[in-house]
Amino acid sequence: MTKIIPEAKINETGFFIQGLSEIDSLQIPIFTIILLLYIIIICGNTIIFVVIWSYPHLHTPMYILLMNLSVIDIAYTSNILPNLLKMLLSRLKLMSFMECISQLYFFISLASTEVIILAAMAYDRYVAICCPLQYVSLMSLKHCTGFAATAWVIGLLDPIGHIALIVKLSFCSSHRINHFFCDLSPLLKISCSDTSDVEVMNYIVGSLLTLATFLLTLISYVLIISTILKIKSAEGRHKAFSTCTSHLTCISIFYGTLLCLYMRPASSYYPDQDKFFSLLYIVLVPLLNPIIYSLKNHEFKAGVKKLLHKMTLKSGT
pLDDT tens digit string along 12-22? Predict the structure, then answer.
């Protein structure tokens, strides 16, 4: 008979997080790579936030949404990577029940916020390309602020149903999470309780939020591409499409990994495959955002140069 650990006992013992690899010789190399990527993510997204915040001419809907995306990426990776780095360095892979639930809450919350921000960015590009004469009225700063505020509120409320159901579950004696953080599928996998309610909740939220925002983004880009193809000059088509390539690249990676990971039953959880997709989901998108959104943007690069010039002058005095 399988031994059940009551919730009180789980609160005391917590969970054992298996991590990325159990091979001792790989711990330091993995630690070094993850630390380097984390530093790049934090620095890159912080630069985006500071530059946009510092220059009023960048206070447009597109840049304000990008600034929100940078905050999400910083918080998103900081929710998981520092703890992963600590486990790799100290080899101490225990996580308390409350730490696990808190990490899961913020993971779901920030992911939900991000899908809404990405959909708002797609709508912004749709209005800019398909309805340029109405852009000022449809994407005013008031509307943009409303989109951002809505995204954060929904993100904070979204995981409450999941968490309320998960804290009622009982867990098997192993309480070993075969992942590198406290994610939903591996957590449900070790539960000895009926997890169907949590899975149904996951599907409902996934259908109402993730698929809804995905469809909004998809429809926006279908209309954008249709409008671009009607532009007669090749130069005009290239210029219009270049304003969307950065966002299109990010959402392709984001939704591709998101749908592979979470829009399926917990019974189809494959640890090694899911760890790989999760690492892409957690590291690659926040890593690419500063690069693909900024390096091709002349206004932003000019803002970076001004900021560096100011810093140089201050350090010189």
Answer: 457 888 878 77
